[in-house]
Amino acid sequence: MYILYDVADNIATITLNRPEAANAQNGPLLEELNDAWVKAAEDPDVKVIILRGEGKHFSAGHDIRAAIPGATSDKVTLELIYQTEARRYLEFSMRWRNIPKPSIAAVQGRCIAGALLLCWPCDLIVAADDAKFSDPVVAMGIGGVEYHGHTWELGPRKAKEILFTGRAVTAEEAEKVGMVNKVVPRADLDSETRALAAQIARMPSFGLRQAKRAVNQTLDIQGFYAAVQSVFDIHQTGHGNALSVSGWPVLAGLDQMKTEIKSAN
Fold first, then answer.
1. What are phi and psi of 104, to 5 degrees?
2. Which of 57, 159, 178, 230 is at 20 to 30 A from 170, Cα to Cα?
3. Separation CA 14–CA 7 (nearest Å)
4. How far apart are CA 175 and CA 169, in angstroms?
5. Quick one: 114 exposed, middle or buried, by C-beta within 10 A (0-12, 13-18, 19+)?
6. By the 8 A CB rule, do 4 and 17 touch?
């Protein structure tokens, strides 16, 4: 079981439960995670959703060792990659973003590349003071992860800096640009997140739903939805180039991602 699920006091807590792999996302984890989001969305007793990661790190992102469904050891096509990523990354992240209930991500340790697809769809982010956010996939010849929240979450210049250099953004930096709502001591992350969720849960459900819809629709009118859809196709050209150069999985740049995890241990 890669996902733990609990409901108490009108708050659903979804926990990434693969700490031995820094909560890296393989196919089964993402499918279980999506099921948990849907379960919380459909439960009338749930008013607020918390997403957290078990262990030292929130998530090391995609487990690129994981198989592409339908692929064989000697044949991986761009079509297969596109189909898999359209569902597990773009479709899932958009679905979680638009669930009509407030959601809060509690982030600690490393939040790397594909992990951004888990916390960015949440309405609020509470970060531990040891949290670091990064998207080093330009080193793999890809222009950023599948769900392009970068420009919206960080602003255009900071987004370019992070992508061009591959460096990590600290929790304090993320708070300054508005990507993170609150930075708390690591030991207080769960309690502070829970307290925020409890405060929100006291509000009327319909009012929360309408407030979330108002903000998300404003972003969509400004172009968020169309931009994310179009940048996903740009992302896939990176995979196409990688397949022509080095095959799959994309190994160039992988050492940089491994180094981020090792440096925190």
1. -130, 130
2. 230
3. 9
4. 10
5. buried
6. yes
Q: What is the pLDDT of residue 242?
A: 74
Of how many residues is the chain composed? 265
Q: How far is CA 57 from the centre of its chain?
A: 13
Rounded to whole angstroms, the Cα distance separating 136 from 143 reads 9
* Number of CB atoms found within 10 A of residue 253's CB: 16
**Global pTM value:** 0.91
Q: Find the helix or strand (DSSP H, E) in which 104 lies.
A: strand 103-107
By C-alpha distance, which of 83, 90, 77, 24 is closest to 53?
A: 24
CA distance 48 to 13: 9
CA-CA distance, 48 to 100, in Å (whole number)? 10
Structure tokens at 118: 């888990």
| Four-CA torsion 177, 178, 182, 186, nearest 10 degrees | -50
The single-letter DSSP state of residue 146 is S
Q: Which DSSP state fits 10?
A: T
Q: What is the pLDDT of residues 168-218, one digit of tens each?
A: 999 999 999 999 999 999 999 999 999 999 999 999 999 999 999 999 999
- CB neighbours of residue 222 within 10 Å: 11
Of 91, 119, 143, 97, the C-alpha closest to 23 is 119
Give the rounded distance of the alpha carbon of 38 from its chain centre. 16
